[in-house]
Amino acid sequence: MRRKWKEIKERTEAWLDERWEIANYIRENPSKTSFYYGAVKALESVGIEWRRNQEGKHSIYKNAQWEEVFCMKRDVFKKIIKLRSALVIDKRRGDYALPNGKRLSDYVRSLVESQMELDNLLIRENGDLCVGSGGTWNRETSRFDDYTLMPDFQENEVCSVEEMEKRIAALVEEIV
């Protein structure tokens, strides 16, 4: 089970407090100082901001830009699909027929699926998108594996292939 952000935050802050004390008050080993600075650089590299007060107590914060790498709001995703489209997507025109005989919704669905695959995103129960895995054919069970959606600092969500198909269809319907 994934840990909640609050727990990760508290443990990391306590660990940084301890390392700061070791690095600055017990100066017997210079590698302890570089270990501390390496840890804060690692936090920065994954988009977590940090502050240290005068007493040496740390606070860490999720950077909003970092969240967008792993999660995407539904409206942002819909805008991306509309920008990628070579065809006019206009709700007033509806699900019109294309010159090749297919419907606009078929074209939009292919755009949605390709963008989801490109970004490794799946649709959450709340409608937003996040990183996930699964949905592959399992030869042992002769069926598709369920999807596991992994939103940042929240519990994982499990979704069947059939449910994901419904979520994709609902998103396409919203766009068209």
Structural features, described:
By secondary structure, this protein is α+β, with helices and mostly antiparallel strands. The chain is built from six helices and nine strands, in the order H-H-E-E-H-E-H-H-E-E-E-E-E-E-H. The strands form three sheets. Strands 3, 4, 5, 8 and 9 form a five-stranded antiparallel beta sheet that branches. The chain has a two-stranded antiparallel ribbon with strand order 1-2. Strands 6-7 form a two-stranded antiparallel ribbon. The radius of gyration is 23 Å and the shape is elongated. The model is unreliable at 64-69 (pLDDT under 50).
Largest sheet: 5 strands, antiparallel
> What is the overall pLDDT average?
84
Q: Strand portion, in percent?
A: 15-25%
β-strand number: 9
Give the low-confidence spans: 64-69
- The N- and C-terminal alpha carbons lie at a distance of 37 Å
Question: What is the gyration radius calculated from CA atoms?
Answer: 23 Å
Listing every helix as H and every strand as E from the N terminus to the C terminus, the arrangement reads: HHEEHEHHEEEEEEH
Class of secondary structure makeup: alpha+beta
Principal-axes shape call: elongated
Helical residue percent? 40-55%
Question: Helical stretch count?
Answer: 6
